[in-house]
Structure formats: C-alpha cells, structure tokens
C-alpha cells in the first residue's frame, strides 16, 4: 500500500495549486482519502477528505469555498484543488487513508509530504 503526494510548490497569494495523491496497492473504493497539513511550529490539522462510499466531502472552515477535493477512479488518484491561496495556507501537506464522516479522523496509511508555500 502506498500513497504518493505531489503538486506542491511556491505560489503568490491569490494563486492556485493542485495537489495529487496517487494510490497504489488499493483502490479508492477501499479507503477514504484525506489531506492534512502541518505548518512550522504548529500542530497538524485536517484540511479535507472524500469518502470512499458516497459523495461525502469534508473541508475545514478556513478552506471552504477555496479548496475542492475530487477523485479519479481511472487514475486511482485524489486531487486537492487549492484556489485563492493565502500565506496561512503555507504548510507541508500530507495525504492519508482516513475515516471520513462528520470530519476526518484515524489516518492510517500516509503519503510523503509536499510543501506548499504561499508568498504575500
């Protein structure tokens, strides 16, 4: 089982990035996938998740309306489209298999982090 995160980078405030989380060893029917992030000196926080069973998605309040999570079954990949990025979005972003219902919990398999840096 492996999750491969990619797509991070340096962007100016107001810009966009799309993160990808490619799964191998299992399908998106098996596990919900979530994104978490950790900024320097701060605790890790949940960002978004998408259910493996239905269309349920979760977003933390600070990213609602700016981030969109989606999945491509053919590519076995989950995407996080991030628009109108702000400096406070700067963090290392991780994807993980999670329990996605009324929020995100119980991360299991982790991908490596991808750095997102938003300059003001």
Which runs of at least 5 residues are low in confidence (pLDDT < 50)? none
Could you say which structural class the secondary elements and strand pairing correspond to? mainly beta
Distance between the termini: 38 Å
Report mean pLDDT, rounded to a whole number.
96
Shape: globular
What Rg, in angstroms, do the CA atoms define?
13 Å
Proportion of beta-strand residues: over 45%
Level of helix content? under 10%
What is the count of helical runs? Answer: 0
Query: What's the β-strand tally?
Result: 11
Reported for the largest beta sheet, the result is:
7 strands, mixed
**What sequence of helices (H) and strands (E) makes up the elements?**
EEEEEEEEEEE
Walkthrough of the structure:
The structure is a single chain. This protein is mainly beta and 120 residues long. 0% of the residues lie in helices and 52% in strands. The chain contains no helices and 11 strands. It has strands at residues 2-6, 9-12, 17-24, 32-38, 45-50, 57-59, 67-72, 77-82, 91-100, 104-105, 114-119. The strands form 2 sheets. Strands 2, 4, 5, 6, 9, 10 and 11 form a 7-stranded mixed sheet that branches. The protein has a 4-stranded antiparallel sheet with strand order 1-3-8-7, with no helix packed on it. β7 and β8 (77-82) form a beta hairpin. The mean pLDDT is 96.
Keywords:
seven-stranded mixed β-sheet, 120 residues, mainly beta
């Amino acid at each position: 089982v492996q999750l491969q995160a990619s797509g991070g980078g340096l962007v100016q405030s107001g810009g966009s990035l799309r993160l990808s989380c490619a799964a191998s060893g299992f399908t998106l029917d098996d596990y919900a996938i979530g994104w978490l992030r950790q900024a320097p000196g701060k605790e890790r926080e949940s960002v978004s998740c998408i259910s493996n069973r239905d269309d349920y998605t979760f977003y933390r309040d600070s990213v609602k309306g700016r981030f969109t999570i989606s999945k491509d079954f053919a590519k076995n990949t989950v995407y996080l489209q991030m628009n109108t990025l702000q400096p406070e979005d700067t963090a290392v972003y991780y994807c993980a298999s999670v329990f996605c219902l009324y929020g995100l919990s119980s991360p299991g398999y982790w991908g490596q982090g991808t750095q997102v840096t938003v300059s003001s």
